[in-house]
Amino acid sequence: MDILENVKERLNLFNAEITHIYTETAFEPDLGSTVDNLNINEKIKKSLKNIGIEKVYKYQEEAINKILDRRNILIISGTGTGKTEAFLIPILNFAINGEKSILIYPTKALARDQLNRICKLIKNLPIRVGVIDGDTPRIERNRIYEDPPEILITNPDMLHFGLAMSRRFSETIRQADHFVFDEIHVYEGVLGSHLRMIIDRLRDINNKIHIISSSATIGASPYMFEAMFGEQGEIIYGSSRRKGMAFHVLINSNGVSRWTLSAYLAAILIKLGLKILIFTDSQQMAEVTAKIAQRFGADLEVHRAGILPEERLKVEQGLRQGKINGVVATPTLELGIDIGNIDAVIMAENPPSYPKYLQRAGRAGRRNVAGYVFTILSDDPIDSYFLRKPKEFFARKLTPIPFDTSNIEVVKVHTAAYILEKYMVKIKELPNLWQKACKELEKNNVIRIVNGIAYATKETRKFVLESSLRSSGPIVKIYNDDKKIGERELPIALYDLYPNAVYIASKRNYIVDNLDLKKMIATVKKTSDNLPYYTKPLYSVDLKEFNEIENRNVFGLPVKYGEVMVKVSVEGYTVHDFYSKKDKSSAEFKFENPISYSYRTKGLIIKHPILDEFTLMDGMEAYHATEHVLISAGRVVAGASLTDLSGISYPSGHVVIYDSIVGGSGVSKLLYDRLEDAYEVALDIVGKCDCEDGCPKCIYDPYCGNNNKVLSRRKSLRLISEVMKGTRSKDEEFWGESIR
């Protein structure tokens, strides 16, 4: 509590304040049988006792028995509550009986990290374990291929490329009896879509695939299991919370930049002797926060996607060895990679979902030592909502993992990989969506189709080699002179790499010189590291196509969900002061020729009524504000991050909300399914704000393409209140004045 008192006092410098403290004291899960009573090999029992495991938890015992019975299961339990042992003990028992298992971790770093943990358990056991990934030397790969170990550790990327391009790898995988997918809460959006396609390809090798999976705390159901794995499975719950004690602290920034406040708080905690980890959801704001921290005497490293792998590895090793006291990270450090003991976690922004909050919070604290979790709540709509209702922050529903198994961009990648693996495939034997993918692949000269048979070509191999499981959109490579310094996926690249944009990499500032979407290259030039400003794009979005998948009524309003094509045009940019307490632009600049990019994704369209008292401008202000506030509500009801959803509003009353990534992520589908709840949250946001007619606490969006113009909180409140009466005709013409 001395630390919290110190923080409370020091926050006065910025007029920020602690508004709520939740003390978490999580007890151990209920104990089950002793190790001696488990139906496993005696040698494994001895090995468990040697590392201090005399009893297992009740949920672990249930998982062990069901896995030994070869049932498909998903184990869900909080950080540090033993879910790894729950699946590893039966896997060891299978191994000692000669059966083979593949353990799949979402990243190479985590896979290598878990190898050490497994080796401790198999010490003195007649079990071999190996790792095969992109870093495995050829001599080691050959050894594994010639005599596969009982336990083989890999990652989804290796499965994807290995199945398509290596006969020996495919044969090794074919011998496996069991497949373990750990940390599946990571497989959201595009990565989850890719995972499902990989499992479909594995099922072609072995149609009796036994699936074991594990996750931190998420909302799950047997339906979600079947959607992700294509098999029926059971859910086993351990503890919903992590082990140990933690202080969860909500901080009201009172208008101060959340990045400045996070950097300042990090400096305070480091001076108090704590090792800290700051989380942001934006790569560029991670860089910004690290730069600001230097002003307060804190030298923070950055760990994020988009920087070179060797830089990320250097940060991980520095944390583990105690050489680094603080890091700013994107979700790349959410996973259970061993980075030593972290005393405090600072969330510079409210995480996109409650499961993500729990996962990040679980990184703070050591055995028998309390952890500190600080969340900066700013003046955006959802943060203001939780400042009014802080207890609801810790009582939120757990959202399921959002992913879209019909993302055609993802299906195309795996259809091509499957054809490359088989060389020739009868198209009529493929699932319908894969058949559709074949037609698009042929149109783009990726495969060749003759008499209903798809053949792999040189272009097929090139297409698969250039694919990525972490994205569905094209990748723009970023160069400073001849040196590659990073990459960004479209459409996000469009918002970061327009001419004259400030781009930050490894705390170094660059100015974008040119963006070539034909060559997929952005060129940047180095500028001063003390640059006092950053930039944001001005852009417009238009709906070009909509193909309905399903529809329903929400409070009497017609709502449709389907495939959409949108066109994004960056028309200029605004300049913002790094250290301003308010997020206000100091200047706007327009391009002579906008930069445009069109792509297909998934989304929903709501047809709002045109109220009698509204003029044309009234309606535009109401619909635009309602678009913003519904997207904000998606953060509560659908677990959306700040940039997962985008929107368009029209004077006709149509509001389009769509997944921000190519092909779709599944987040807009969750919002579509829970739209009634979203309107409830939206009503609270616009109804309880005390501003005149619009501000960052209610309807302003930091990512708004027109810099938050043409908005009205009062008119949005009037519209939403009318909608929620449910008196509108369900038969009202949907398109009316067409927006297409």
From TrEMBL:
Keyword ATP-binding listed: yes
Domain Helicase C-terminal: start-end pairs: 264-409
GO biological process: interstrand cross-link repair; nucleotide-excision repair
Domain of life according to the entry: Archaea
Keywords linked to the UniProt accession: ATP-binding, Helicase, Hydrolase, Nucleotide-binding
Database matches in InterPro entries: DEAD/DEAH_box_helicase_dom, Helicase_ATP-bd, Helicase_C-like, MZB, P-loop_NTPase
GO MF terms, alphabetically ordered: 3'-5' DNA helicase activity; ATP binding; nucleic acid binding
Classification via Pfam families: DEAD (PF00270), Helicase_C (PF00271), MZB (PF09369)
SUPFAM superfamilies: P-loop containing nucleoside triphosphate hydrolases (SSF52540)
Residue ranges constituting the Helicase ATP-binding domain according to the UniProt record: 64-236
SMART domains the record matches: DEXDc (SM00487), HELICc (SM00490)
CDD domains the UniProt entry points to: SF2_C_Hrq (cd18797)
Protein name per Swiss-Prot or TrEMBL: DEAD/DEAH box helicase
Classification of source organism: Archaea, Thermoproteota, Thermoprotei, Sulfolobales, Sulfolobaceae
